[in-house]
Automatic annotation (TrEMBL):
The organism's place on the tree of life at top rank: Archaea
Protein name: Periplasmic copper-binding protein NosD beta helix domain-containing protein
Chain ranges passing through the membrane: 311-330
Keyword tags: Membrane, Transmembrane, Transmembrane helix
């Protein structure tokens, strides 16, 4: 009986050590990490595949030939290292250069993205996603600079959108804010399809073949006075009046007559001069007029046990109770045997 108890105790010790190992191996980080490309991972895609929510993917200077897929992810920031110039060029021109699908709280910051040239391709393609921010990027030489579909709460800010067939395409999406972008030399500047309740203001529309194309969409094209709307290079009007109704004497850098896109889309405060944008890549929170763009909230790192580890610990407790029970039963059995032998001897 003693040998049996010793064997059980050894098994129990082994299981205890195994449970502790599982606990150590299943440490889960809840805070940000910095993943460096190509130091930690040779490609941007590999860094994304190995990232946790809240991680920053920092890219060193260079040209990266990839088609990047961000799918079912939450809370990533993808940007160059401070002072580095990063170009991402499509490996397959028939696919988006960066595709963001079924994701939330993703920031793409300060990249030059090109080569998504095929029909329905784009520099950045956003599908069924929310809280996506495309900031301070150069998007040129694509079928579309940014293609947004079935998404909401998207911010497109401080980008240079140049020489694409379509600067932006917005389909079946809402709460898209397009602010302080240079939208220049595209076939169509912005194309809205069944996409209403979006806001477009403080952008420069220059030398596009068609600035706006809108189908079954009603959107806001200006902020409140005196912030104003957009600059349209094909529109000239007087700037002699000021005020909410543009009926008070004095110029205010807002043209006195609204810019009419169609009957339901009107920029009521078109700007007299193009805007000069200023935003720094190093600023963690970029405030552009009344709209604030904030990177994902990062929590402090802490350690938690995985589900597997919890299961192992529960099993360990059960085994301890079982062994304790067996020891008690064995002791009682030994007492009964001794009592029986004692009666027979009498």
């Amino acid at each position: 009986m003693k040998s049996t108890i010793v064997a059980l105790l050894l098994i129990l010790l082994i299981l205890l050590l195994e449970g502790l190992c599982i606990a150590v191996l299943h440490v889960k980080s809840l805070g940000k990490r910095f993943l460096y490309v190509p130091d930690d991972y040779p490609s941007i895609q590999l860094a994304i595949d190995n990232a946790n929510p809240g991680d920053f993917i920092l890219i060193r200077e260079g040209v990266y030939v990839e088609n990047i897929i961000i799918e079912r992810r939450n809370g990533l920031v993808i940007k160059p290292l401070e002072g580095n110039s990063v170009v991402i060029k499509a490996k397959d021109e028939g696919r988006p250069v960066i595709s963001i699908q079924f994701s939330k709280n993703i920031t793409v910051f300060g990249l030059t993205i090109t080569g998504g040239k095929a029909y329905r391709s784009a520099a950045v393609y956003i599908l069924n996603s929310s809280e996506i921010q495309i900031q301070k990027c150069v998007l040129y030489g694509n079928n579309a600079g940014i293609w947004i579909t079935y998404s909401q709460n998207i911010t497109v800010a401080n980008n240079n959108v140049l020489e694409n067939s379509n600067g932006l395409v917005v389909q079946y999406s809402r709460n898209v804010v397009v602010i302080e972008n240079n939208i220049v030399l595209n076939g169509v500047g912005i194309d809205f399809v069944d996409a209403s309740n979006n806001m477009i203001y403080h952008n420069n529309f220059i030398n596009n073949k068609q600035h706006v194309r809108s189908h079954k969409s009603v959107n806001a094209w200006n902020a409140s006075y005196p912030l104003g709307g957009n600059y349209w290079d094909n529109y000239t009007a007087e700037d002699l009046k000021r005020g909410v109704h543009q009926n008070e004497p004095g110029a205010d850098s807002i043209l006195d007559t609204p810019y009419k896109i169609d009957d339901t889309n009107i920029d009521y405060y078109p700007l007299a001069q193009p805007l000069a944008f200023q935003a720094t890549l190093s600023t963690p929170i970029i405030t552009i007029l009344t709209h604030t763009i904030t990177p994902p909230t990062i929590t402090l790192t802490q350690t938690t046990l995985s589900d597997e580890c919890r299961a192992s610990l529960i099993l360990l407790v059960v085994l301890v109770l079982l062994v304790t029970y067996l020891i008690i039963v064995a002791q009682k059995t030994r007492k009964r045997v001794r009592a029986t032998k004692s009666r027979k001897a009498d």
